[in-house]
Design a protein that fits this description.
Strand order of the largest sheet: 3-4-9-6-8-7
Number of strands: 22
Distance between the termini: 20 Å
Radius of gyration: 37 Å
Shape: elongated
Strand content: 15-25%
Structural class: alpha+beta
Number of helices: 29
Largest sheet: 6 strands, mixed, barrel
Length: about 900
């Protein structure tokens, strides 16, 4: 029998097919005949040609009565294309795709898991980007809201808080419709169950009105709430109302104890309320007007966070110009305090995103890279699968299927697998995003607001369908162009298409290039964290337990009461078993401290516009192990009523007295030039107060007894592990004041880690994504080499039969396999050199083009790819020439 006759014998019975073609309606004919033809091909392969022909005739004869009756009672339809035809075709394609996926479960599972991983990572990161930077702010007309800052280049290159007098002046600007402000606050809630610290803000009565927020219940503050003699009032969050207060329907008008004073709840914030820089549970009214009576406090204390709403038709540039006019006028009126001060505004969205923008965009870009690697891997798998099914496609073509029909089947197959993978990815994002962020994310990311919403679901769904169409369309370009005689004839298996092989090798190069970029980024961040970890902080954070307390001014009304509490706290903490010492300060290291201007007494030419201002107790430097390089530290003989004294760090001393001689000098700190000067009694080593990556600023350490604040941070030096001291510290505070809760209790090492949370977040994500990229790229390399070996087994058999050595075959396969690897690594290195500039701002003492990192990552990828190539290459070298030739 000739090849042509054999091909015809594998076709369905012509007579039966002609009967069905005549009886079937035009709209149903194509997809019903395709279904029967597909079933016929499968039966030929599994049960033989006789059983297949018998089954085809049985189905034809059974359908004739119903088809004839349908023809009699229904007029012929127009042969034109209709929506019903399209729906029927789509249903048929999807049914075929589902059956094809079930026939190759291992390949289908590989595609689904690969896409699920890539889509899951991308969808999870998109949910964070959407929540932080894309989702509309919960404010009315949020586009017209701006943050108002004050920039003092002599103090800091970054804009900061505004002074009360400047806030008043900015509020009168013709660019603003309204302006409001807020400041930090502490709230200790207490009842019969004990005390708990609640996040709180002090806000002007206009602040919530500026934001356009409406109460969920009750009302917000008015000027009457800050009038002299007004009863204490508060506004609470929806979370506090439903949680701690049990969702009391009569919560408005209820009084609760905050900071040892009864406060009346006048309103409840809406459930979706989001503050500008924090997430408060309690709002208390802020009256800044008394500060305006003192020129020093009004102009030199910068502590207010201002938010304004632009007037209609006022642009950002116009508002900036208006603030420049205000700043110029203030400088002319108050040259001593306002010279070099500039008003700055920025859109509220940008202010709320803050430092989270860069690590989030870096993470999203890395996630897209992972997805692209996954897509390249899937395209390789789908292409190999299509080429291995060319005979089946040729049979379909011989039975009358057009090229477009074959292409639609392959696109449907890719779409089905991609949608299933997308569903898996969205599920991973839905249940995995928040737990992962709770461990990894920096504090700038509001975890509570992150969830997979409809926008994220739509993003995942669209991406899944798009990837499925592309993944199916690429094999369709090759698989649908099937030459029947070539596919059905018994051709040698080595006659694979060169273009297909080159395309699959290109996919490998793309995967390795993308993996190179990801791993270089991870390597740079790892080196950055290593450098930060090796940085001398100026103190020893190990075995140090920290916590803070905020003394309510209603109970601790003067310095004597506050000093008594903090002295007793320090003494009792020092006496705890397992404690080597304790100290109290107004703030912790690694956290931005307050600043003040400095003037050397009697030397108006020796000034510093801004120095760190950190009141500390005795034993502070010993407890933190900060070296005393000259003079002495504070001791118990230094009293609150004694001579005013201060300790300064080396940087401050060298800036003012480069040749030495700081001891005994007298300085004035703060806005009041007539204040009593402080005598320098000691010089200590520099501490990186603002984080490991920031240089140590000049700092003055006044004695806390002489400059006590209502907030204190306690530090306990442990002789071993700090864990046993946690409960003991809580007991000490409760014994001193049962209504005073502890805040932010944590080891100092955690505080240090928080200061580099953004770098750690980017490093961990890049490292994780890089690991995924290596796995996917390794699978891709192995798949391509293994497929090539399978297709060329006849060629290898001939080579070995003609005298080639097995090591020659091994070398041939490895060389051919490593060519796309080398190309990918080179292209990836070039791309990484351009991409790493986006992470340069997060690096510390590491060059964005760091040769050791590039070389190490490239070598690792070559090694991993070499191992992946060796396994199929070794199989090729073991080819049995006789068996190979006999099979062909």
């Amino acid at each position: 029998m000739t090849g042509t006759e054999s091909a015809h014998s594998d076709q369905p019975p012509r007579a039966a097919r002609a009967i069905l073609r005549c009886l079937l309606a035009d709209a149903d004919r194509a997809f019903l005949l395709d279904d029967l033809d597909e079933e016929f091909v499968l039966l030929v392969a599994h049960e033989g040609i006789r059983a297949a022909r018998r089954r085809y005739w049985t189905q034809t004869l059974r359908s004739i009565p119903s088809l004839v009756a349908h023809r009699i009672h229904r007029p012929p339809t127009s042969p034109s294309f209709s929506a019903g035809t399209m729906r029927s075709s789509i249903v048929t394609d999807l049914r075929h795709a589902a059956r094809a996926a079930l026939r190759a479960p291992l390949t289908s599972l590989t595609v689904i898991l690969t896409l699920g991983l890539g889509l899951g990572v991308t969808t999870a990161i998109f949910s964070v980007v959407n929540a932080v930077m894309l989702r509309p702010l919960p404010y009315a007309d949020a586009a017209s809201l701006v943050r108002v800052y004050e920039l003092v280049p002599a103090w800091s290159p970054l804009p900061g808080q505004v002074a009360a007098a400047d806030y008043e002046a900015y509020g009168a600007s013709p660019a603003f419709d309204k302006i409001g402000a807020y400041g930090s606050a502490s709230a200790a809630y207490s009842d019969d169950r004990g005390a708990v610290a609640l996040p709180a803000l002090r806000v002007t009565p206009s602040w919530l009105d500026v934001l356009g927020v409406r109460p969920a219940a009750g009302r917000f503050f008015t000027d009457a709430d800050i009038a002299t003699g007004a009863a204490p009032t508060i506004v609470i969050s929806h979370r506090l109302w439903q949680g701690l207060l049990g969702g009391d329907p009569r919560v408005v008008g209820r009084t609760i104890t905050i900071n040892a004073r009864r406060n009346t709840i006048i309103g409840v914030l809406p459930a979706n309320f989001r503050a500008v820089t924090s997430d408060p549970d309690v709002l208390v009214p802020l009256d800044y007007r008394p500060m305006l009576l003192d020129v020093n406090e009004a102009h030199k204390y910068h502590w207010m966070e201002a938010v304004a709403r632009l007037k209609p038709c006022v642009s950002l540039d116009q508002a900036r110009s208006a603030l420049t006019v205000v700043a110029t006028r203030m400088t002319a009126q108050f040259p001593e305090s306002n010279t070099g001060h500039y008003g700055v505004i920025t859109p509220l969205r940008d202010a709320m995103v803050g430092n989270a923008a860069r690590p989030l965009w870096i993470s999203f870009g890395a996630a897209v890279f992972v997805l692209l690697i996954a897509c390249a891997n899937v395209a390789n798998v789908m292409l190999a699968r299509t080429m291995s099914h060319r005979k089946e496609l040729a049979v379909r073509s011989a039975l009358g299927a057009t090229r477009s029909r074959l292409a639609s089947l392959m696109v449907a197959e890719g779409t089905v697998l991609s949608v299933i993978g997308g569903a898996l990815g969205v599920t991973l994002a839905l249940f995995g995003t928040r737990p992962v962020l709770a461990v990894l994310s920096p504090p700038e990311i509001p975890i509570r607001e992150i969830h997979v919403d409809l926008v994220t679901l739509a993003f995942g769904a669209v991406l899944s369908v798009l990837i499925g169409v592309v993944a199916g369309a690429l094999p369709a370009l090759f698989g649908s162009d099937t030459r029947v005689s070539e596919a059905l004839a018994k051709q040698p298996r080595g006659s694979h298409r060169g273009m297909t092989s080159r395309l699959r090798a290109s996919f490998v190069s793309v995967q390795l290039a993308l993996a190179m970029v990801l791993l270089v980024g991870a390597g740079l961040m790892i080196r950055t964290l290593a450098r930060l970890g090796d940085t001398n902080l100026g103190f020893d954070p190990g075995q140090l337990l920290t916590f803070s307390v905020a003394l309510p001014s209603e109970k601790y009304q003067n310095d004597t009461l506050m000093n008594a509490f903090f002295d007793a706290l320090r003494d009792r903490l020092s006496a705890l078993p397992g404690a080597r010492g304790a100290a109290v300060a107004s703030n912790l290291p690694m956290q931005n401290n307050s600043t003040a201007s400095l003037v050397v007494a009697g030397r108006p030419d020796l000034t510093l516009p801004s120095v760190g201002y950190l009141p500390v107790s005795r034993e502070y430097f010993r407890t933190l192990r900060i070296a005393v390089t000259a003079g002495r530290e504070f001791n118990d003989m230094d009293r609150a009523t004694g001579p005013k004294i201060v300790v300064v760090n080396e940087r401050l001393a060298k800036q003012l007295w480069p040749g030495g001689g700081a001891l005994g000098q007298r300085i004035v700190l703060g806005p009041d030039p007539t204040a009593a000067p402080l005598t320098i009694v000691g010089v200590v080593g520099d501490v990186r107060q603002n984080g490991p990556a920031a240089p140590a600023p000049p700092i003055a350490y006044p004695l806390m007894r002489q400059d006590v604040w209502g907030t204190g941070c306690a530090m306990i030096r442990a002789s071993g592990d700090v864990a046993p001291l946690i409960d003991a510290a809580r007991r000490v505070v409760k014994e001193l004041d049962p209504a005073l809760p502890i805040q932010t209790l944590a080891p100092m090492t955690d505080v240090v880690q928080t200061s580099i949370a953004a770098q750690r977040f980017s490093m961990l994500l890049l490292a994780a994504f890089g690991g995924i990229a290596i796995v996917l790229a390794t699978i891709g390399v192995y798949g391509v080499i293994a497929y090539t070996v399978t297709m060329r087994v006849h060629e290898f058999g001939v080579r070995l039969a003609l005298g080639a050595q097995r090591r020659d075959v091994l070398r041939l396969v490895l060389v051919n396999g490593m060519r796309p690897v080398g190309a990918g690594v080179i292209v990836g290195a070039i791309a990484a050199a351009g991409v790493t500039r986006f992470v340069s701002a997060m690096l510390y003492e590491v060059d964005p083009i760091d040769p050791p990192t590039f070389v190490a990552v490239g070598a690792m990828l070559v090694l991993v790819a070499g191992v992946a190539s060796y396994v199929p290459a070794r199989a090729a070298a073991r080819t049995d020439p006789l068996a190979s030739l006999r099979e062909q």
